[in-house]
Each structure stands twice: as structure tokens, then as C-alpha cells.
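Hi L.,

You mentioned the student needs an example of a multi-chain input paired with its predicted structure. This one should do, with 362 residues in total across all chains.
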Amino acid sequence: MELPEVNFSNDFYFWFNTETKKEYYATPLYFYKADFHLDYDNKLRDVYYKESELTDRGLKHPASLYFPFHERLGLLLLRFLNSDLSDYEKANKTFFYAYGFEILRDLDKKYKFELKQNYGSNEEYLKATTKIFEDLQENLIDIQKELKNAVTYIYNLGNDESLEKYTYLERFAVYLMKRKGSLYSYYKNDLIIRDSYSNKYKEFENYSETNILESLHTKNMLLSMSDTHKSNDLSSICYAILEELVKTPNYPIKKCQNCGMYFIPTSKTDEIYCDYPKENSKPCRDLGAFQSYTERLKQNKAMGEYRRTYQQKFMQVRKDKTNTKLAKEFETWKKQAKEKINDMKKGKLTENEVYNWIIENK
Ligand SMILES: [Zn+2]
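Structure written out for the whole complex:
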């Protein structure tokens, strides 16, 4: 297995630099609602979401390993955990705009599809990729669910005391060895290509032999070596990233206590709020800095809903004193609601999860 030397128009390649905590990937994209910044000096690109951007009449833009996309280590996995897979546009906005659809080619052995070099129009592109997404939607939701379960166990997001003293790597190993969930089956579609100096052929073609020798000798030039993964199966890609993350100390996945999104803290590892930019408000971390925890609880919408619902139920029971069934139900509800609220205070459940529970259990 060789790495493609020039541009290529199929497949998904990715690799890591754990020292700088970066991940890199190269894959062809149609750039539907997406654009990118070019960093010529470092030969890198980064994709961003852009609502007004459409494809170039359905044209597939080739990728190059020498102009890869770069992002913070773990971002692909985090984005997938946080992605909204309820419909095509939402899934595109929260995930696929940045990574494309090559990563779904080997997701399901029984489902093969083509990604054309040119669809001729934006509409044709949308029609084709919407079908692919919808055909694989259930599958994707399952994988996301499993990854959430795995991450919850590995990073002990449920604050399980019996798991507290173990490291991420230890929990990851046990999760796989005991075949908890289906994560253990996700590594299959990943081809690892070992790095070698010969792979630098293209990168250094414009330098003379003496020039390179001198650079290596006098400037202590470092040639970074990293194994490249080739995979067209999103589950295998997430597996490889997770494996890399659990080996990286002080780099935990957390669940934001305000919005429930998965994140990796940028500065202190005990950060409980994410710093994702939000459309209509400040990032959760900034909100958290302004309000003390108890103040936040007072304004917490789950607490507000709890108090309102409690009052309603209380009045119902009082009005209908002979109704023992109603009184009993109220007692059960009180107990369950209290437990939910305590879990929220301990960080086991998010505000939204408790709010939804109260709405669903009125
Ligand atoms: Zn948040």
C-alpha cells in the first residue's frame, strides 16, 4: 500500500501529531456550504461552514496529502458525538461539511455507492448525497450512540465512583476486552501506512541533495514521521482517534454542564463548560464565568419547570383529596424528580436532560 503522491479523488486519509495535539486529514470535497482558509507557509487548510456557499456545479475537488486539512486533535470525533443526525442539512451543518462522504463508503458492507467526479449541478449533488445520508442514517445514529456510551465509560462522564481511580487508557482497554458495546468491532476498516523517508520524495523534490543533507546536519531539521491511516469507514476513523486520545495524558473528553456537548478543555482539565461558539449567546464557559453555580441553578430552566410542575401537581392533589391514586403518583413523581435534580447538581445529567424529563413526565 502506497500513499498517493499527487492529487487524489477518492478516499479519506488522516494522521496525528500528538506533541502539537493536531490531527490532519485529506479527502476530496464538494464544499457544499463550506469554504476553507489556505495557509501557504505551512501548506495547510482549514474548513469552515458557510451557509451561502454551494458546490461548483457538483464538482468534486481533489485532495492532496501535501495540502491537508488540519484541526485540533480529537475534533472529528467530538464533532461526530455532537452532530445532529436528524436530517441531511443538520448533519451537513454539524459534521459532513468538513469531512465529506468518502467516510461512509465502507460503513456498511452491503451498501455500496458512488461519489461522482461531477454531478453537473448543485441540485443533482444534493439529491445523490441526501439519498446516501438517508440510506445510512440509522446506521450512523447507532454508531453515534455506541460512541457516546464508550466515551461515557472511558472518561467516566457518569461520575461512577467505582471507576474513578482508573485512567482513560485502562478503562478503554477493559471496554474493549470485555466487549462492552460494539466499539470492539469498529477497528476493521482502517489501513495503516507506515511513514518512511521515501514518502518525503514529493515534499522535497525542489531541494537539492546537498541542500537536504546540510539542513539535516547543521540545522537539526526534524522530519516528522507519523503513520497515515486510510479509512472510508467513519466508525473505524472514530475508533482510531479515540485510541489516540486515550493515550494522550491530561486531554480528557468532557460533557459541558450547560449545553451537554462533548468537548476537550483547552486550558484546565477540570473545566466543566465548553467554549464552542454559540449562535445566539456567549460560549458556555463565558456564561459560567459570570454566574456562580447557585445563581445559575436559580435561573436553570429545569429547576423552573420543576417548581411549576410541582405546584400544579400539589394543587391537583389538594383539590381531589379522596383520590389516593393521584396522591401516590405525586409521591413517586416527587421522588424521581428529586433524583434527577440531584444528578444534575452532581453533573451526571445536564440541565436539558432534566428539563426534557420533566416535560415528558408531567
Ligand atoms: Zn456548552
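You could point out the following to them. The chain has two domains: 13-252, 291-360. DSSP finds eleven helices and nine strands in the chain.

Best wishes,
N.
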